[in-house]
Amino acid sequence: MVKGTFRFLIALAFALGANPASAQKFAELARTPPMGWNSWNHYGCEIDETLIRRTADALVANGMRDAGYVYVNIDDCWQGERDANGFLQPDARRFPSGIKALADYVHARGLKLGIYSDAGSKTCGGRAGSQGHEFQDALQFARWEVDYLKYDWCNTGTGPAQRNPREAYATMRDAIRAAGRPIVFSICEWGENKPWEWAGEIGHLWRTTGDIVNCWNCELGHGSWTSWGILNILDKQAGLRKYAGPGGWNDPDMMEVGNLPSLAENRSHFAMWTMLAAPLIAGTDIVSMKPEIAAILTNPRLVAISQDPLGIQGFAWHRTPELEVWARPLADDKWAIAVLNRSDVQRTHRIDFAGEPLSDDLNQKFAKIGERHYAITDQWTGQPRGTTPQPLDVTVDARDTAVFLLTPEG
Questions:
Q1: What fold characterizes domain 315-408?
Q2: CA distances for 57 relative to 52, 54, 106, 289, 290, angstroms
Q3: Catalytic site residue 211?
Q4: pTM of the predicted structure, to 2 decimals
């Protein structure tokens, strides 16, 4: 029975053209950075179907769904055992109703369901991985009507025996294509093999660093691996912007917005992820989230920067050890400007737009402020802040970020 099942799956894969020479990802997906929620940052392995349902309900009730957060992603530890034919089953104690019933619940609320697996023999949490079962697992996910797959990199071997990441992720891409259901494919190999150089043809987003942690500026060692604070991960994005765009995104990991100790840090984290054109996958307790955190995550003006159709990743325009001014070209000749205060004291900065050329040579975007005027809008409040012929004086609290929109006049 098991051998027959595998023969069927292999035949299905090739019948649908799922081989390295012909298979492609679902290119129509993730034309802007995906937005949603993931269970890992706040809950780790302590998950069950009740939590997922309550989170889906909360995303609707607090306005996050309508702001664009549509993916409800179950991370590690949902898995049970494989059945007699090798098909993966959910943990019967945690998910007694099954994943298909959970998908139906999520879909009925105008949301989409995401799930997790691993390219190794086991997941990071020690559950069944997909190595050797890629086509079978992708078929199971499609049967369950899953919409998003985060695919991790634990237990893939070491040294010469380690799996080749391009092969491993391409195999799961081919399996998803063979299963026939459009699924956003999130490559989570922690940036160890420079996925930005090869993952664009395989997945819709790829991790650029190790795991994020809810601190402003820190490195936490865990033996064989390290987790990083917000500023640390931000700094690791240097040089990667040319690889991002519609359908394929640099992923500096899921957000810790709501898990950081100060409101300023949460604001900065969110603002800089929108400037990076990063996926906006919230990792906090949505059910009990404070209104001020919901206001950050659903700010329509910052979300619009994130979801700009050009999909151009922002860059550091000016930089000092204490303060950075970032710029991001947007559609309709608009520009987003973020002033990040990295320090622990309030700082004031003057931006002389008329005297400081603003350009993105990589994408051939030029503000030409000397030739045209721009209206300046505070994106946190929506209030006007003058026009570019006059310098803009910005006061930014410790660890906070001011964000502005430049809109051409006339």
A1: Immunoglobulin-like (2.60.40)
A2: 9, 5, 8, 13, 16
A3: yes
A4: 0.95
